[in-house]
Amino acid sequence: MTRFLARIVFGALGLALAAYLLPGVSYSGIVDLLIAALLLGIVNAILRPILFVLTLPLTIITLGLWLLVLNAAMIGLVAWLLPGFTVTGLVPGLLAAIITGVVSWIGAIVIGDAKKG
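The structure assignment produced for this chain is given below.
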């Protein structure tokens, strides 16, 4: 449970950093930011694998760059679902996906991976 909460916090930190650095990403409060991180985790766990399989040929053709667009679409979906979190366009969504991904990756290193061993 603590790993799950830590991942939510690192996701929220990534979204906050994206909102701080990018003019097209914003949130209205810390609660909306935490809910956005939770929704992003749920969307990435449920919807992203399905879309990944459906768009696998496109991912192969673009040598994996399509995954950035897919991640941006997941952040855009969260922004669409949550009124307190906004992303205004594809470029801010792509950059937010990169920033959030890097911060989440650092978070996974900090918390450690449960699949080791």
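Interim note for the steering committee: The beta strands are 25-27, 85-87. The CA atoms of residues 13 and 103 lie 7 Å apart.
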